[in-house]
Amino acid sequence: MPAVEAIQLTRTFGPKVAVDHLDLAVDEGEFYGFLGPNGAGKSTTIKMLVGLLRPTAGQARIAGIDIWQEPLRAKQLIGVLPEGLALYERLTAREFVRFVGAMYGLPPRDAAQRTDELLALMDLDADADKLIVDYSQGMRKKTALAAAIIHTPRVIFLDEPFEGVDAISGRAIRNVLQQLRARGATIFFSSHILEVVERLCTRIGVIAQGRLVAQGTLAELRTLAQTGEHGTLEDIFLRTVGATDEQGREGGERSLSWLT
Amino acid sequence: MADVADRALTWLGLDATRQRALIGLRLRLLQRQFEREPGRMVGFIVFLVIFGPLVLLLATASGFIYVAAPEPWPVQALGIVLIGLWLAWIALPLFAFRTNEGLDLSRLLVYPLSTRDLVASALLGTLFDGPSYVTLPFFLAILVGWFEQPWLLPVALVAIFLAYALMMVTGQLVLTASMGLLRSRRFRDLSIVVFSLLGSSCYLINRLVESWAQATDAAALRTLEPLLALRWLPPGACAQAIAVAGQGDWLSAGLWLGYAVAWLAGLTWAWWRLLLRMTTGATTWSLPAPKAAAPRRPLSTSDAVAAIGFAWLPAPARAMLTKELKLTWRVPQRRIGLIQSVLAPFALMVAIFFGEMEALSRLPEWTAAGLPAIMLFAAWGLSTNMLGMESRGLATLLLTPAPRWQLLLGKGLAYTLLALAPTAFYAAVLAAIARSPLVIVGLLAGVGTALVVVAVNMVAAVYYSYPFDENSTVRQRAGGGWRTGVVQIVVVPLAMAVVAAPVTLPMLIGVWWGLPLAVTVVGTLAGLAYAMILFGWTTHYAGKTLTMREAETLAAASLVK
Hints:
heterodimer; A: alpha/beta; globular; B: 76% helix
């Protein structure tokens, strides 16, 4: 049974089709990278998979549980780092992570102990009693990640976890994610940082204009995109999303008339 | 025409292209303020309709004093008017800074602009600021006031020009100096609270002013000569120049104008230096950096309340209650509701003791009847849009698997507690004065009222939430569309009145018709029991509904549309 499953998942906003009959399955223990250009439908898909945005059509399942039929059962299994982070900015990081622990039903003592460990791991312990509103973007992201994993979820959804995070924090986050995966967690994450996706993910899905245009391991994607065995994820990405202009030039090859 | 303006700017050593771009930017930002939040346009029109005539009235009154009042009042009034305008020029940009991006010069520092260009753009930008238009009628009144003494006009014109320049430069100096402070989150929080409370404390201020006026000897007021002190302040010197010129002492008038020019030069120099410091990266005034986090207390007050008084609650409900107690204080817009729930009973006591309500003779009855009303308004204010008030955190909350009725239970109890705490304190004071058990009966009915009010808001929140941005610069943004507006303004109050009637009527009937105390107590307790049952049932109903409507509730309360 897949850990994450989207069946004909569709979402429209007025005339715009943000996600178009998306079929996707992620197996347990996978580290699944979800790529796509800006506005391709990554965040919309994640929101529908975690129960924050109702699909226009289709189903979203977590470990076989339809999140729109049994939301609380499904949510017990997941941890989410949402787009925009969704933090209580007037709580301190310590208060926030403990609060989320309580929401997942952790006994207060366990929640407190896990919070302290998570904040130390994220290098936030010195600032743990400052209000989140006074945090930098990287600190906020680490706080949100700590909250997302405090209950050791089976499936973790991460929307752009490395955006705005410095190299040291990025390393800390990567280590935590690898530890979680080693414990059997499934990780589903979207990112624009292709190098990280290339390094971490066991399987990659590419979405463009709301449709899954490619999916597979890095080797499979190389074959699919015909980039050769040394093709980078960037090459694959540019080929699969068809980022070319009227003259057939790839996005990265376009230039400014007054600079040539 | 544009050519002439460009040449004039170039002659002044300014870059005409940049000045045009900066003025264009200022105009566009002004326009965007209204486009981004159409409600602000309505506010602006209301402001014009209410304050426009008030400004004109005050300016006319000042002109009348200049022309018709006996000596020494014309010049004294002139001094007061100029100082008042000067203070307004200093204070208003500080508060407008929260909403007017154009006032933030620091945003321009990344561009290669000279200090001269920055100064010029700031000064030209004041032409688009409200205070300029408030000032104009007062200046016209001064000219009219001294028109009958034409030999005074040159002095009056120079004095007015200097006063205006002093207002602009002082305002900009204070604004630039406090840029760091103004951008701080703590100043923003404080200004939201202060602004809102100024409005709601008008009644108390009115009371205090009335008492002061009654206690002050009118004859003493007539002999006051404030200009004796005010003349040493920059715009006061301008008024003093006109005053002494009116007495034919032209030399003194010249000296006072020279004194004002010296102020202008000094303030302009200080502003210039400050801008230079800013352009070279030095910081301006700011609040001291937050101290290193204090050693963690094992238990905060909110934690203690939840741990001791509500240990019986399920863990998510208890965590929710604790969080609500904390955030009601820490989120400035929510803090206002809390402070008002403290001030409202105080206003009631002031009303009682100032004898407005023939209340002292029937203190116990009035108190008993007043307490449910106070609790109603306090609980209403605190619990309105209770899910939208979660702001950005709502998504996190709805991602968790905590039973929704438990979340609502924790929230509901927190609001009831917050409404009860200040009211209970005042009730205790009034009970001690009135020495009547009726006050306690009133408080019990008040608790019941708070519970049903919160219950109504719980249901309204599930169906009709609207966005709330805790980082916004205004108290509350209404963004839920007309249907939500109608529900919140019409349906919710009606529903509250209907469901609160069975709670309050038994107590009110017993108290006002003088029924035996036992009958009143039984009726009130029955009302309280009804309120508790309704609260419990609603919590479960709203929780169940929320589970099914989470995506819709979240979309309605989302800050990003």
